[in-house]
Amino acid sequence: MQYDFDIQRIKQGDEDAFKALFEFLYPKLMGLACRFVDNEIAKDIVQDIFVDYWEQKYITDVANVSSYLYKSVQNKCLNYIKHQTVVDGYTSKMKIAQARMDYISRTTDDNEVFRQVSNQNLRDLIEASVGKLPPKCQEAFRLCYFYEMTCREAAEVMGVSPRTVEGHLQKAVAGLREDLRPLLTVWLISFLLSQ
After folding, report:
1. Which of 7, 70, 71, 162 is in Cβ range 3.0-4.6 Å of 151 for a Cys bridge?
2. How many CB atoms lie within 10 A of CB 119?
3. Are 162 and 155 in contact (CB under 8 A)?
4. What distance in Å separates the CA atoms of residue 66 and residue 68, rounded to the nearest whole number?
5. At the topology level of CATH, where does 79-194 sit?
6. Residue of 79, 67, 59, 89 whose CA lies nearest to 5
7. What is the spatial distance between Cα 77 and Cα 124, in angstroms, rounded to a whole number?
């Protein structure tokens, strides 16, 4: 069902026109947000998006307000997930990685490569490597590998075909493989030493 919003009235500060937009899109935006985050966080995100739009109504000039709000919710959810992944997972993952690297360092004290790697933040190395990828490759990689979405789900989020997502993933993996080759070699050696 297509709904024709009077964006000009909203830009002029008409609260009734904004309320009509809000009432029509709120459930749809909540549905989208709840695919990524829990209900309470989704409410906050959707509310923030509407507040931001209302506050920026005079300067926000987009052809399709619905698409703009959908994309804004999607981006805010993904940013929230990324932040939470770092906050929640960073400490435990780093403790495990550091314990492994400390063990390797103790057993191979004279090896300079092991000492260097044990002193580096592994998560930062991986994030930096992902950050070197083209934007669409980064998005496909994060959705499929960090958030465990299928290619079809990632395609819906990105607004592309599943085959396009697969292409982005192939490029991303190839780029990461090349960029992280020294780190992968160290991990392989550490695995073999622990056997």
Report:
1. 162
2. 10
3. yes
4. 5
5. Arc Repressor Mutant, subunit A (1.10.10)
6. 67
7. 22
How many Cβ atoms sit within 10 Å of the Cβ of residue 138? 16
Q: Which of 92, 142, 80, 81 is nearest to 122 (CA)?
A: 92
Give me the tens of pLDDT residue by residue for the chain, a chain 195 residues long: 445 567 888 888 889 989 999 999 999 999 999 988 899 999 999 999 999 999 888 777 777 888 889 999 999 988 888 887 766 665 565 566 666 656 555 554 445 554 455 445 566 677 788 888 899 998 998 888 778 888 898 898 899 999 999 999 888 888 887 777 766 665 555 555 544
Closest CA relative to residue 190, chosen from 100, 86, 67: 100
Looking at residue 136, its amino acid is K
65's tokens: 């307000």
